[in-house]
Design a protein that fits this description.
7 helices; single chain; six-stranded antiparallel beta sheet; globular; Phosphatase 2c, domain 1; 247 residues; alpha+beta
């Protein structure tokens, strides 16, 4: 299979700077998105460093153990990025406490395997179905999982931005890995909470479906919808279309 990838990141309508970072490696089937946190633009440092470390990990074959599985490589990449961000936060006072969410998806051998930390998400659009593949590492998601809060209550909660896990905050981090089988025609969406917090899933699906022929346009429209809803946060999206062989 081949993959068409497109991404866009925007500071939104309120924030002065953009602490999100994205990158794609279409030839390798890799898509990366991070949403940084921390004062004095430290979040911007954390997210860009994490994305660059993971990109370098996959771009340089000498950094990867040849016998390791796809899952092992994802964990290695996350660990390298976590160590780099954490150590810098210890060395530079202005970066103290910085961290970032991360979503890394690897499309290979008929499967998409995704490592994620925090509340940035992965969705799949297949035919008329739109599904969230990842599960947030957040306080409200924990309450939903334990049955103390409904999904509707979680969507409107004032605490939905409180993450329970982030890359770079501690010396080690545990990324969750999820797996999905892809097929030609599927479109996957990686996004920061700047989209998912202000635009409901039905509107995201509708926007994607209406502009499905052009991923550049679809990405821009998703950002536009978030900004039209107030754009209170940085908003980033990465779209990946699974193509038929030879297309």
């Amino acid at each position: 299979m081949q993959f068409e990838m497109n991404g866009i990141t925007h500071q939104g309508m309120v924030r002065i700077n953009n602490e999100d970072s994205i990158s794609t490696l279409p030839d390798m089937g890799i898509a990366i998105l991070a949403d940084g946190m921390g004062g004095h633009q430290a979040g911007e440092v954390a997210s860009s460093m994490a994305v660059e470390m993971i990109k370098q990990f996959y771009s340089d074959s000498n950094t990867r153990n040849k016998g390791d599985s796809v899952e092992d490589h994802l964990r290695e990449a996350i660990d390298l990025a976590n160590t780099a961000v954490f150590e810098l936060s210890q060395e530079r006072p202005e970066c103290a406490g910085m961290g970032t969410t991360i979503v890394v998806s690897h499309f290979v051998d008929g499967k998409i395997i995704t490592a994620h930390v925090g509340d940035s998400r992965l969705y799949r659009l297949r035919d008329s179905g739109f599904e969230q593949i990842t599960k947030d590492h957040s306080v409200v998601q924990e309450l939903v999982t334990r049955g103390f809060m409904s999904q509707e209550e979680a969507n409107s909660s004032m605490n939905k931005n409180l993450v329970t896990r982030a890359l770079g905050i501690e010396a080690s981090v545990e990324a969750d890995l999820v797996q999905d089988e892809y097929k030609a025609g599927d479109v996957y969406l990686l996004c920061s909470d700047g989209l998912s917090d202000v635009v409901d899933s039905d509107t995201i699906q509708q926007t994607l479906t209406e502009h499905l022929e052009n991923l550049d346009e679809a990405s821009q429209k998703l950002v536009d919808v978030a900004n039209q809803a107030g754009g209170p946060d940085n908003v980033s999206v990465v779209l990946v279309r699974v193509l038929e062989d030879g297309n």
